[in-house]
Amino acid sequence: MLHKNFHYNTSDHKHYLTHGYRLMPEFLSLAGLDRCRQELDHMLNKKRHPDIPPDQVIAAHQQEPWMWELATQPALLDMVETQCGPNIALWSSHLVCKPPHSGVSVPWHQDAPYWEITGKLPGAIWIAFDDIDAENGGMCILPGWHNKGELARRKTGESLFTDEIEPSVLGVDIESRMVQYTLPAGGMATHDTMIPHTSEPNRSDRWRRVLVLRYVSADGQVGPKTYRDYRTGEPFEREMFLVRGSDPTCRNLATTPFS
User: Fold this and answer.
1) Rounded to an integer, what distance in angstroms lies between the CA atom of residue 59 and that of residue 100?
2) Which domain range does residue 228 map to?
3) To pair with 9 at 20 to 30 A between CA atoms, which of 26, 78, 123, 208?
């Protein structure tokens, strides 16, 4: 599924540690991208439960073998291992799709403070299935801000994101300092779980389809969370799956969601 040139090297890791992110334009192979797109079309157009919008398809790696296969690719796990060590658990996937001329403005926020997760967190994996840029709602980040700790927040009054980073913390010149994600279809980005980021609605005639994968060191702890099966609407629980290495705390972590 992955591009033959994909390799997370020492230079990539240095950039990630210094700036809090790394763009990898060659991630999926052409065949891998084509397969993912076909699977997505099947999910979004034929099987999805009508009450679950495409930007709320969470933890579908527990139902979709292709998504699990992608999340456990050896070259991808090599990168994750560089960031968090040899014992790795997958705990989340999130399919974030913005159809043409849709979506909402996502305010500046940090991810990790919301999660109820302990353990060493590698960077989130942000996989683009379409060409991504500012016009169709690509993400923006503040490079280097992953080392500033948890930033002050204020309430927004919105239902999706109930709070945002306090604007005075970010500064008035934020547009000159932020980095806009621009990736070709099949590209990938990894970003620190504490880096501030935002995104705009999709104002283009194109789709913006992204899969986010999240891992943690296998000795970590994941708080309880209930999701809904995108196919049926039935509830199911968040779970850690051991995808590389050993289970150091001997919790008998499952190694696959499929029997």
Assistant:
1) 24
2) 10-244
3) 208
